[in-house]
Design a protein that fits this description.
heterodimer; A: 331 residues; alpha+beta; Rossmann fold; OB fold (Dihydrolipoamide Acetyltransferase, E2P); 6-stranded mixed sheet; globular; B: 314 residues; mainly alpha
């Protein structure tokens, strides 16, 4: 396993800027999640690192060596594609064994059999090994695609939304499983998603991408508690952070245009009056939809609350996050 | 306005037509649509086939309508023991095998090259496909000129590259070269067809498959043999089926080119059959011949289609 460093990577597709001057280091043995909406440059970053696409400028280092001139095969990186990219004429078993049969590896036959069986077991596809790759459901194809990466022992695993077409139960199983595999192998893993739960639960580091720029990079808790901008703050947290005009509450610092309130920043019981619009009972938590002077916000309350729509509650912000007019954080 | 949709439709239809249509059941209308095709099929396909089988057991001659007798399997016996028949079968087999061999090889290679993204590959596709669009009779005719020992371009090109004197050999006249002369022309004309089908196969493979293979550290060589070839194979086999059936029936091109000569060296079964039927007027004999050919090509094609389906399922 290796450390991967990006230095000032830029890439455009015609007039479309996919990546603008991205620099980051994926430390050896870390689980890095790239977070951002569609078009933020997440997949492009993976393709640059894998060598399938070349950056317009900038360098990519693997353990300190510039790999700019290396082919994908020479870089020895395992990639899980969002669209699966299975070999349709091969069986599940042969799909999983395909990377091991590379002449660059010379894996003995019993070793191949053992690894394929092991990975199939983890991904719960053992009973489908003899199926053709086209005779699978979307979720099964996705698991085969993950398996095709896991059978290998590459420099780094690159995964492009690998859990997106799985059902909720399997997704949470595999989240734990992937994290366990990565931790036990000490593998370096770069993972693309727009699912904040995946990011929060698995990542050792999160990179937040916005229109090709890396806006923040750091451990999940740091990005959650200490976001650099409204954009970064909005990536994490459920319910989403409430962004409100700074003058709605007294005591905003000078220069602040917006304040960001997560549920834990809102104390119920005293302060400004807010009207209850809706109450959502989710079982373990209850979401309160409030409105103050036509500004909506969502917060959490006691699961057994008796509040009803139309009631009035009082709220006070506590150590809120403050942002300037451009959306950047004021400390 | 009121009533069911059918009533409304009836009102909107001219009275005479409505009167005629209203009396018909759905079933009758269905038959009305299918009927003409079935009649046509029976008249020009099924009936002639049955009649041919019937004639194959007689000594009927189309230019002498009297004294027709049923002679059992004697026509079949004579055909299968006739050395001339077997010679034309051999000529056909030679023609079939080598045309398909070269067309698959060259057709696939061309498709592979055209599929690489380069400037003007559409123009090249058009140019390559041109021979296929010509009439076989015309192609046969102008290749007789290309094959001319004195003035023919083909002989000149051979001389240019190999140094063999152009006037020292005749592609059509020589007993060694004539079977190859027809193979060359058919390959020239129909390789584009195989290429087009292979191209369709190659284009059906998404780039992402190769990207995955690239990441899985498969060499270009391994990608070609374990991904490209197996995925194009069903298409290739289809092309072989089409070309095989077509060339089993080959007539016009070869008649124009060699007329079946020299001797009977390039007399393919279809040419032989036409002579028996319409030059010697041995209609019963020719019918039996036609039945034998039909069974042969039908049998081979059936076996082949089974194999094709197996490849597709794999």
């Amino acid at each position: 396993m290796a450390e991967v460093t990006l230095r000032n990577i830029s890439k455009s597709f015609g007039p479309q800027v996919a990546l603008a001057d991205v620099s980051m280091t994926v430390p050896d043995g870390s689980f890095v999640v790239l977070l951002g909406p569609t078009g933020a440059g997440k997949t492009t970053t993976l393709r640059m690192i894998s060598g399938l696409d070349r950056p317009d400028s900038g360098t990519i280092l693997v353990d300190g060596t510039d790999v700019g001139a290396h082919s994908p095969a020479e870089r020895n990186m395992a990639m899980v594609f969002q669209q699966y990219s299975l070999y349709p004429h091969l069986s599940v078993h042969d799909n999983l064994a395909f990377p091991l049969k590379s002449p660059m590896l010379r894996t003995p036959r019993d070793e191949i059999a053992r690894k394929v069986a092991e990975v199939a077991e983890i991904l719960q596809i053992s009973h489908k090994l003899d199926n053709k790759a086209t005779e699978l459901s979307g979720g099964e194809m996705q698991r085969v695609s993950i398996g095709r990466a896991l059978v290998r022992d590459p420099q780094i695993y690159l995964m492009d939304e690998p859990l997106s077409s799985l059902d909720a139960k399997l997704r949470s199983d595999l989240r734990i499983e992937l994290k366990r595999i990565q931790a036990s192998m000490g593998a370096t893993l770069l993972y693309v998603t727009h699912d904040q739960i995946e990011a929060m639960t698995m990542a050792t580091h999160i990179g937040v991408l916005d229109e090709g720029r890396l806006v923040q990079f750091g451990p999940p808790r740091e990005i959650y508690e200490n976001p650099v901008s409204i954009y970064a703050a909005s990536r994490l947290g459920s319910p989403k952070i409430n962004i409100l005009p700074a003058d709605l509450f007294p005591g905003a610092p000078a220069g602040a245009a917006h304040i960001g309130l997560r549920p834990e920043h809102i104390r119920l019981g005293e302060g400004i009056e807010a009207r209850v619009k809706r109450v959502e009972h989710l079982g373990d938590q209850t979401r309160l939809h409030l409105t103050i002077n036509n500004h909506d916000l969502i917060t959490l309350t006691d699961p057994h609350t008796t509040d009803k729509p139309g009631d009035t509650v009082k709220i006070t912000p506590q150590t809120p996050l403050c942002f300037d007019a451009g959306g950047d954080r004021i400390k | 306005m009121s009533g069911t949709p059918i009533d409304r439709l009836a009102r909107a239809t001219p009275p005479s037509l409505a009167r005629r249509v209203r009396g018909l059941s759905d079933r009758a209308i269905a038959w009305l649509f299918v009927g003409p095709s079935i009649v046509l099929l029976l008249a020009v396909n099924i009936f002639p086939l049955i009649w041919t089988i019937n004639l194959s057991f007689t000594n009927f001659k189309a230019n002498r309508l009297r004294d027709v007798e049923y002679i059992g399997l004697r026509n079949y016996q004579r055909i299968l023991t006739d050395s001339g028949t077997w010679e034309s079968m051999q000529a056909t087999a030679h023609f079939l095998f080598w045309t398909i061999f070269f067309q698959v090889l060259i057709g696939f290679a061309l498709a592979y090259l055209i599929n690489k993204k380069f400037k003007g590959n559409n123009l090249w596709t058009t140019i390559i496909v041109l021979p296929m669009m010509l009439s076989p009779a015309v192609v046969g005719n102008f290749w007789t000129f290309l094959y001319q020992p004195q003035i023919g371009l083909f002989n000149y090109v051979v001389e240019f590259f190999s140094g063999v004197d152009a006037s020292s050999f005749s592609m059509i006249g020589s007993t060694h070269l004539a079977p190859w002369a027809i193979v060359i022309v058919d390959t020239w004309m129909w390789t584009p067809f195989v290429m087009l089908i292979c191209l369709a196969g190659l284009r059906s493979i998404p780039d992402s498959i190769y990207e995955a293979a690239e990441c899985d550290r498969a060499s270009k060589w391994r990608q070609f043999w374990t991904l490209t070839v197996p995925m194009v194979l069903p298409f290739l086999m289809l092309a072989v089926l089409f070309r095989g059936i077509e060339n089993f029936k080959m007539f016009d091109l070869v008649v124009q080119l060699t007329g079946g000569g020299p001797g009977s060296l390039t007399t393919l079964t279809s040419i032989d059959l036409k002579r028996e039927a319409f030059e010697k007027w041995r209609t019963g004999y020719a019918s039996a011949y036609a039945v034998i050919l039909f069974v042969t090509v039908f049998g081979l094609a059936s076996i082949y289609v089974k194999a094709l389906n197996k490849v597709k399922e794999r």
